[in-house]
Amino acid sequence: MGTVTGPSLEAFLPELPEVEITRRHLEEAMVGRRLERVRVTHTRTARYNATTGEVESRLSGRRVDTVGRHGKFLVIGLDDGYTMVAHMGMSGRFSVAAKTDEEAPHTHFVAVLDDGAEVRFIDPRTFGFIAVFDEDELSDSALSRLGPDAWVDPPSVPILMRALNGRTAPIKALLLDQGPIAGLGNIYADEALHLAGIHPLTPGGGLDATEVAGLLLAIQKVLSEAIESGGTTLDDLAYLLPDGQAGDNLSRLGVYARTDEPCLKCGTPVERIVVRARSTHFCPRCQAL
DNA sequence: AACGATCCCTGTTGGC
DNA sequence: TGCCAACAGGGATCGT
Q1: Domain boundaries in chain A?
Q2: Is the CB atom of residue A106 positioned under 7 angstroms from any atom of strand C?
Q3: Which of A215, A221, A212, A217 is nearest to A157 (CA)?
Q4: Which nucleotide is closest, CA of A169 to its C1'?
Q5: A238: nearest nucleotide, CA–C1' criterion
Q6: For A3 and B11, how far is CA from C1' in angstroms?
Q7: Positions of chain B reached by protein Cβ under 7 A
Q8: Distance A84 CA to C2 C1' (A)
Q9: Which amino acids of A are annotated catalytic?
Q10: A256: nearest nucleotide, CA–C1' criterion
Q11: Which helix (H) or strand (E) holds A135?
Q12: From first to last of its 289 residues, what are the pLDDT tens digits of chain A?
């Protein structure tokens, strides 16, 4: 992983690998710790059933038992049975900081731990959120509608076949949906489809067992490589991993953000189309319809 | 039910 | 050079 120095601006879009790396940092910092004081300073950061003040009071004084993840959601178990659920949206990042560290712009959440460290949530575009749910609220939340986690609980070929059966929507859209499989965002959906040689507009129900098996393998490969290399840090915004480092996965991308550049497998220029209002990159030769 | 369009938000970029 | 519209995207919501 590259350490960022000076004024260079780097970003990453938090998808499963980036959320998993964040989870590991937060687990190290938070498990067994008590949240002494919690501050939520942006109304959009507290979402669903709770105001900023309610999130603060539900978290303050609680001890963290577990830090888990399902898809792109962080799932933090508290000692009173409540669950803190966090989503980093598109611009959110967590930072584990010392009390004396200067607060970054757009810091909307600060938890002071009983060892003096602070867990901060920084989110310029406020697409992310932090919620605290009891059991009923949790079972009624978006978490309950997620498919199996693409990394720790990947669906088998028959399970994914069944989820895609009869679906006419493009496979790209279904990968982003989080229902058939949870954790892929725009970058890794494009990368997995490219690696599997599947055109993004292929109707989900039109994939045969061989193609679904290949897609699942491709998903495992792009996710594991991204996690190992520290996630994908793009160079247009200033978002970093919790320890201030940038991920190194950018150079591994085959199609994402490579419009008109040669496909690394065959040299054909990468094409960009829009699917469900999301930019979609693919090689027209390796991924023929 | 499934699908697609629209909205939220702001730092950055590209065109004039 | 300066201004402003366009762009980026995860998930919620709404209309068909």
Answers
A1: 2-145, 157-282
A2: no
A3: A212
A4: B3
A5: B11
A6: 22
A7: 2-13
A8: 46
A9: 14-15, 72, 278
A10: C8
A11: helix A135-139
A12: 333 222 222 356 899 999 999 999 999 999 999 999 999 999 999 988 689 999 999 999 999 999 999 999 999 999 999 999 999 998 999 999 999 999 999 999 999 999 999 999 999 999 999 999 999 999 989 999 999 999 999 999 999 999 999 999 999 999 999 999 999 999 999 999 999 999 999 999 999 999 999 999 999 999 999 999 888 776 544 445 666 667 777 778 899 989 999 999 999 999 999 999 999 999 999 999 9
A196 SS3 class: helix
**Helix (H), strand (E) at residue A219:** helix A209-228
Task: Answer for A98: CB within 7 Å of strand C.
Answer: no
CATH number, domain A157-282: 1.10.8.50
CATH code, A2-145: 3.20.190.10
Give whole-number Cα distances, A114 to A55, A89, A102, A119, in Å: 18, 28, 19, 11
| pTM score | 0.92
CA of A267 to C1' of C10 (A): 32
